[in-house]
Design brief:
Radius of gyration: 22 Å
Number of domains: 2
Number of strands: 20
Shape: globular
Distance between the termini: 35 Å
CATH topology of the largest domain: Polyamine Oxidase, Chain A, domain 2
Number of helices: 14
CATH architecture of the largest domain: Alpha-Beta Complex
Length: 451
């Protein structure tokens, strides 16, 4: 049996990054991936003749972003789309009030100002929060002090709730008061007209990746690790586990000896959110050519509240909406027909008969996916930002963890997956890795393969 230097479990962004760095350093690396594809939660469906990003879609803030720099160096095209971080304003947004009536410019400006004022007060309220306080607790205390009419409060309350759902995939009462502390976005946001999973695919080129290998156990000792799969055992001096937090929380991989508290504790305390996408393609556009987002506020937006115009990707009139948190779990149990009918009912309450019958749709169900069991991590009540980084290990010098849930600065992002994969490889190599050199080697390899 071949003994590898490192076995990487998972061929998503973090797994391909760490494997690529180690392989470029001359290490014998094996990547074991349960799915029949590379990319993990970066999944671009091209079956319709254009890419539909069913998983990750955005770079949230390209200013001073090593991820953005890597994408640019590799020549991967992007389109500016700066509302993926769930902003109240900043780009053209068609707002509708709690009765599904369109809001004029003055009403929209007042609503954006209300969110800004509440957010400003929220900073101090979070700073004064105590252990055990939820994001619901601190936002309600802020709203209670505004003195606004109930309708104004409801609009901002719904915004806070949906922001937590979209950023964390969680119910606002399950998120720690500090759960959005790392949520600052620097610069514009971008999406990918060729599909986001081009990035991990290009990083993975030439690696020894075994698809369809479901890892069931990792046994470690002073000599290294034995990784058991449904297709046999593999041995190595080190292992990097990059499976999503949901898989770890479910105990789908048995670790022997059991993981120590400094890793097992964060796995138990951190939350795994559910965030599902619904793409709906229409025969013709019924919304403004200039609008990035259609948004229902207050009662009208209790469930379906935001529709993003992603027509630039497909060339067809297409809206993207989300179902996250408890509502996302509910939608997972609906048939496609029932879910789409519910979306159309909300749109028709705003636009009436102008909303045509869809010609195509896509619906994700990440919470039901056995190889992710959720969409991305969040700071559940009782956890801390330290838990993210503590989860990375290492354990006994041979077992490392990587993935968005292990990076405290910006968890739940592709950037976090990239940086955590680099960190795991750096710990094994005992030296730092420059991402510019990392990108240059990818380009050199591609040029060599093209000859």
């Amino acid at each position: 049996m071949t003994t590898f230097d490192t076995i990487v479990i998972g061929a998503g962004m973090s797994g391909t990054t760490s494997a690529r760095i180690l392989a470029d350093a001359g290490h014998r690396v094996l990547v074991l991936e349960a799915r029949d594809r590379i990319g993990g939660r970066m999944q671009s469906d091209r079956s319709a003749g254009f890419p539909v990003d069913l998983g990750a879609s955005w770079i949230h803030g390209i200013t001073d972003s090593p991820l953005s720099d890597l994408v640019q160096t590799l020549g991967i095209p992007t389109i500016e789309f700066t509302v993926g971080s769930f902003q109240a304003g900043g780009r053209p947004i068609e707002n509708f009030d709690g009765e599904s009536a369109p809001m004029d410019a003055d009403a929209s400006a007042r609503w954006v100002a209300d969110v800004e004022a509440a957010d400003l007060a929220l900073v101090d309220e979070i700073a004064r929060s105590e252990p055990g306080d939820t994001y619901l607790d601190v936002t309600e205390r802020v709203l209670d002090r505004t003195g606004w009419a109930p309708e104004r409060i409801d609009e901002v309350r719904e915004f806070f709730r949906h922001r937590v759902e979209e950023q964390c995939g969680a119910w606002i009462g399950d998120l720690d008061a500090h759960g959005l502390d790392e949520d600052a976005i620097d610069g514009d946001e971008v999406i990918f007209p060729r599909g986001y999973d081009e990035l991990p695919h290009r990083i993975a080129q030439g690696l020894d990746i075994r698809l369809g290998h479901v890892v069931t156990a990792v046994n470690r000792s002073a000599d290294g690790v034995i990784v058991s799969t449904d297709q046999g055992e593999f041995t190595a001096h080190n292992a990097i586990v990059t499976v999503p937090l949901g898989v770890l929380k479910a105990g789908a991989i048995e670790f022997t000896p059991a993981l120590p508290e400094h890793v097992a504790g964060p796995i138990a305390r951190l939350g795994m959110g559910v965030f599902n996408k619904i793409f709906v393609q229409f025969p013709e556009r019924f919304w403004s050519e200039d609008s990035y987002v259609l948004r229902a506020l207050g009662d009208a937006g209790e469930h379906w509240h935001s529709w993003y115009d992603v027509s630039a990707i497909s060339g067809h009139p297409t809206l993207l909406t989300f179902a996250a948190g408890p509502f996302g779990r509910h939608v997972q149990g609906l048939s496609d027909g029932a879910a789409i009918s519910d979306v159309l009912a909300s749109l028709r309450a705003m636009y009436g008969d102008a909303v045509g019958q869809p010609v195509a749709h896509r619906i994700t169900r990440w919470g039901d996916d056995p190889f992710s069991i959720g969409s991305y991590s969040y700071l559940a009540v009782g956890s801390s930002h330290h838990d993210h980084d503590a989860l990375a290990g290492p354990v006994d010098g041979v077992l490392h963890f990587a993935g968005e849930a292990t990076w405290g600065d910006e968890p739940a992002t592709v950037g976090a997956a990239l940086y955590s994969g680099r960190r795991a490889a750096e710990r094994i190599l005992g030296r730092t890795i420059d991402l510019n050199e990392f990108a240059a080697r990818i380009i050199t390899r591609e040029q060599s393969d093209a000859r």
